[in-house]
């Protein structure tokens, strides 16, 4: 299997990337396919090779709201790494997707057996995947609930409308 030149795989040291890829199998999902639902068991995870996947949250009375879209090289799912191993969001393909699929219990066992590998994978997931999602959520919240640009200029001593 050929590793991506960017994304989560490139953030891992080569020996740990190679070890992680020994647990991978190549899969494909058609467009509009539901990969997992919020609250379901997180027993797999994926690294997207091509295509787009929308992460969503179920809102009572409104249905699914997309909170982020992932693409090539990105990790789909990190709930597999932390108990209780339940998805916090749902995921649905926006286009046809090709990905590496990993059996989470198998990777967790390898993490427990090899502390250096475990530390590398955990740090990578935290820095690349979780950090990126938090930044994206912050940006989305600012877009939704931040003050209008004119109010910000006024507060900062800039022009007033």
TrEMBL record:
PROSITE patterns: CNMP_BINDING_3
Residue ranges constituting the Cyclic nucleotide-binding domain according to the UniProt record: 8-96
GO MF term set: DNA-binding transcription factor activity
InterPro entries in the cross-refs: cNMP-bd_dom, cNMP-bd_dom_sf, Env_Response_Regulators, RmlC-like_jellyroll
GO CC terms of this entry: cytosol
Name of the molecule in the record: Cyclic nucleotide-binding domain-containing protein
Lineage: Bacteria, Bacillati, Actinomycetota, Actinomycetes, Kitasatosporales
């Amino acid at each position: 299997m050929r590793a991506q030149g960017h994304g989560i795989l490139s953030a891992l040291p080569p020996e740990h990337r190679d070890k992680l890829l020994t647990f991978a199998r190549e899969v494909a999902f058609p467009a509009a396919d539901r990969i997992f639902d919020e609250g379901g068991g997180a027993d797999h995870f994926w690294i997207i090779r091509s295509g787009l996947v929308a992460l969503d949250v179920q809102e009572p009375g409104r249905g699914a709201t997309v909170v982020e879209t992932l693409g090539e090289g990105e990790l789909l799912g990190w709930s597999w790494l932390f108990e209780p191993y339940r998805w916090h969001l749902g995921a649905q393909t926006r286009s046809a997707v090709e990905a590496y699929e990993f059996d989470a219990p198998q990777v967790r066992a390898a993490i427990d057996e090899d502390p250096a590998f475990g530390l590398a994978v955990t740090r990578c997931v935290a820095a690349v995947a979780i950090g990126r999602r938090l930044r994206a959520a912050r940006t989305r919240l600012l877009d939704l609930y931040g003050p209008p640009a004119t109010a910000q200029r006024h507060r900062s001593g800039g022009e007033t409308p």
